[in-house]
Design a protein that fits this description.
This protein is mainly beta and 478 residues long. The protein has 3 helices and 29 strands. The strands form 6 sheets. It has a 7-stranded antiparallel β-sheet.
């Protein structure tokens, strides 16, 4: 990615943002038993024995019926009919990290409970990122540093990197959480550096290029990198821990390369000559490739659970990657159109069933308004927009990959930082920063309301919207 500056929390208004794609960056008690009958004296008259026996039997039957009634009442009170559906609570669906309007790092449950402030400094922080399956975070600060913290009452901050001249601009944990790869500004361009997360060694430069994109291999030992723009200075290859690069092919028009969840397939764009860029999906086990020519920049992302690649490409030659969303399945070799809206970013749910997309709504005639049926009991909730229509108002849509159904959930105005630094490089950020709930049922987004930035938790079925308060750049634990 290119050189984004740290967010200024005092910045409130932006009239226009120009994207430069190529230059980038939630034991019942047992029923009562009848008392044991006291021993009865022997009687000569059988009628008395019979009468008493009948009383005991009657008592047992009555008590049993009462017990059954009590148990039945409990069952009825706790029984959910099979046709009923309940929306899972957001109380235990992981945690969300976000930057407050004062530039400080907070975490919170997605229902707004148990908020923690992890930093309290005179300088701002930005772009927090969670380690996978952990309560550890890393975050950038305005003093040119990278700090790791624990999401706890005692956050135990640790500075891993600090530089006044080569400030970091992007963070990405390795899959095993042992390292953090980061991009920093340098006199020679954008530097890819790696630092051990236990603080045992100094950060070291692995490679330099502008712009710079990469994905970690699943074993955290190497990186699939893409640097530069199409031409002589561009590189696409496998970067070793010692900085040696194994070149793969001359790169075509794309940004971040992708590695499938099982590590078998790689995806990138290759320059096939005469300026023709082709999307390539390479099987690293047998060397087979699937290729598809694309007219403009291509953006891609692998499913976290299957060998399926989602991608967009622009319609006009050598322009952005904004365009229809397609899906390629390596098992069947089939490619399907998922959305013919102009998609500008897309993100896989953790369960691999859904794709959250941000689109311009140009196909949907109801873009800019609540797109749900007003009579529906499951009406979507729209983020409020203030004043006149904003040219940067987008749609959030959810695509069910199994059924192919696309649902426009809401329209919203993104915050300045989200639209200027996150969206243009979403394919790289999608590798490291998570906007999905661990349950795959909600999204977190920073939304503009008037002159304020608010963090919103949005159910993907449109049934609920929670405002966590003023803040920006919110990401869910992984």
């Amino acid at each position: 990615m290119e050189n984004p500056e740290l967010y200024d929390p005092d910045e409130t208004q932006v009239d226009e943002v120009q994207f430069e794609m190529e230059n980038g960056r939630f034991p019942s008690p047992p029923p009562p038993h009848p008392p044991e009958p006291e021993p009865l004296p022997k009687r000569k008259h059988g009628c008395w024995l019979t009468a008493i026996s009948l009383v005991v039997i009657f008592s047992l039957v009555a008590t049993g019926l009462l017990s059954l009634f009590w148990v039945g009442e409990e069952l009825v009170a706790n029984w959910t009919p099979p046709w009923a559906t309940a929306t899972p609570t957001l109380e235990s669906a992981g945690r969300i990290a976000y930057i407050s309007d004062k530039g400080q790092l907070f975490t919170v449950q997605p229902n707004g409970a148990n908020q923690r402030q992890l930093t309290d400094d005179k300088f701002p922080y930005q772009f927090p990122v969670w380690a996978t399956g952990s309560n550890q975070l890393a975050v950038l600060n305005a003093q040119g540093g990278i700090v790791t913290l624990t999401d706890a009452d005692e956050p135990q901050p640790q500075t891993l990197y600090q530089s006044g001249s080569e400030a970091p601009i992007y963070l990405y944990w390795s899959p095993d959480n042992s390292q953090i790869g980061f991009l920093s500004n340098s006199m020679r361009g954008i530097a890819l550096q790696v630092v051990e997360t236990d603080g045992s060694s100094e950060a070291e430069v692995r490679s330099i290029g502008t712009p710079f994109y990469w994905d970690w291999l699943t074993d955290s030992s190497q990186m699939l990198i893409h640097t530069g723009t199409p031409g002589a200075d561009a590189q696409l290859g496998l970067l070793q821990a010692d900085g040696q690069l194994e070149t793969i092919a001359p790169p075509g028009s794309f940004q971040a390369p992708g590695i499938s969840a099982n590590g078998r397939y790689w995806a990138y764009a290759e320059d096939m000559g005469n300026g023709n860029s082709w999307l390539v999906i390479s099987d690293t086990e047998n060397g087979e490739q699937w290729t598809e020519r694309h007219p403009a920049v291509v953006a891609m992302s692998w499913s976290p659970t299957a060998d399926q690649l989602a991608f967009t490409t622009g319609i006009q030659e050598k322009t952005s990657f904004w365009g229809p969303l397609r899906l390629f399945d390596t098992e069947t070799g089939e490619m399907n159109l998922l959305s013919d809206n102009t998609v500008i970013a897309f993100f896989w749910s953790p369960n691999g069933r859904y794709l959250a997309t941000i689109n311009t709504g140009d196909i949907n005639p109801d873009f800019g308004v609540n797109v749900a049926d007003n009579a529906s009991p499951r009406r979507t909730t729209q983020a409020k927009s203030a004043g006149q229509p904003n040219p940067h108002q987008f749609n959030l849509a959810i695509i069910d990959v199994e059924t192919g159904e696309e649902t426009q959930v809401m329209s919203f105005i993104p915050t300045f930082l989200f639209i200027s630094q996150f969206l243009p490089f979403f394919d790289q950020y999608a590798l490291s920063h998570n906007i999905w709930s661990p349950n795959s049922d909600a999204i977190v987004l920073p939304v503009r309301e008037g002159s304020e930035s608010h963090v919103k938790v949005i159910r993907i079925d449109g049934s609920e919207l929670i405002d966590l308060g003023r803040g920006d750049m919110a990401f869910w634990s992984r």
